[in-house]
Amino acid sequence: MLQHYKYPFRVWLTSVILGATLYYIYDLITSINYRSEYMVGSDPFFLVLILGMSLVFSLPCLIIFVVIYNYLMGLRLTVSGIKLILFIISEVAIFLWMYILIDGSANHSVFDYLGLITPFAFVIGGSIWFYKIKMINAS
Hints:
By secondary structure, the chain is mainly alpha-helical. The chain has one domain (3-130). It is built from 4 helices and no strands. The chain has helices spanning 3-32, 44-74, 79-101, 114-130. The two termini are 13 Å apart.
């Protein structure tokens, strides 16, 4: 049973660490263009802050991902089918979760935050397809 939790945990941890790092790099590059006295992206503490926020805000997503993953494993689908369903659900979920976090008000659109969402969406999608799912045969 522990085998069923390794894949979702790896995908989640990779998306949090690598997604936050890619967002930090993106913010560092874009903040150079503003030529401000203090660039938020140049502060190394900003990476720690983004990592911490990513860990905290993505915990509900991890729980949902584990539940969906275990449900799909019980359906006895092919590995490609499981990964495709997880990919679609994860990509939609990241936009919905960001919509919830920005309060879903009429003044903001999720698409205004593509610079924040895109690194995480790419990493989640890539890690879903990169890591191997080990199918466990039921006896």
